[in-house]
User: What shape does this take?
Amino acid sequence: MLKHRFFTAAAALALCCAFAAQASAASKEITVRGRLRPTVEAGGWVIVAGEQKYLLLNADRFKNESWFREDAEVEAMGETKSAVTIYMEGTPFEARTLRPVGRRAEGSAAPAGDGAITGGGAAAELTRITVSGEATVQAQPDTAVVSIAVVTQNASASEAQGENASRTEAVVRAVKAAAGAGAEVKTGGYSLQPQYSYKPNESPQINGYQVRNSVIVTMSDLTKVGAVIDAASRAGANTVDYLNFTLRRDRPARSQALAEATRDARAKAQTLAEALGGRVLRIVEVQEGALYRPPVPLARGTVGRMAEMQASADTPVEVGSLDIRAQVQLVAEVETRP
Assistant: This one.
């Protein structure tokens, strides 16, 4: 009986010594450097430092930081604790400070695994910069859009409408014949408006009516643009509203402009990083700006100009080129040394 009590007391003493040793180890402050990883237990985080894992007991304190994310390299100062969680992933660790650090400089010794415990020393700092890049690519248009109108006036609204209808019908037939089978011809607008005369101290009086009917022609054969305008004027059209050259199949030019704008933005980010004494670690965010494809316009025509077209043999049309402009904005993470 006495022997049994002796062994029981010895076991209790050994257990107390073990708890004391554990408590002593838990109170020791260490510096841990590694990468953040989520735990199996929902909402938990660990710092993976080489072969060792440290379970962050107070991760909620740092979760709102912009740099707090999976695979972020961090440095923490704190104490290991005697705590029990459901899954016990790593040594329980309460961080007093936790901050992001950059990658090690090229040529320095790298630790085993994703991180290591360090005893201090200057660490890299992370910052973010926002830059924009622009590029312009020239391309040849593949489509022409011309708006031609017939304008008639008469003291009678019905007479103005009837004259306009017959002339517009003739213009549509002539335009279709000149543009070819691949062209698209459609009505662009129609209006009937009274015309007023104004005298001092008198109410405006209607003295006639104006009818306007516009026809829009879209064609891919740019060599026929002049012939279409000439045919329309000879058939009775008396106004050219506009002539635009556009690029329907714009994917190659657009892709080239975006690629060049992106390279321009990256070059600016690298220049800023070098000016700060650091380097670009990664691109955090990229946004495409508005793609601008200005049409090549021809000056608005007038009745007098159409009369000149009727008198000339052919209407000369120079196509020119289009400027495809692209803009890109990106956010880069930069490593700097204090």
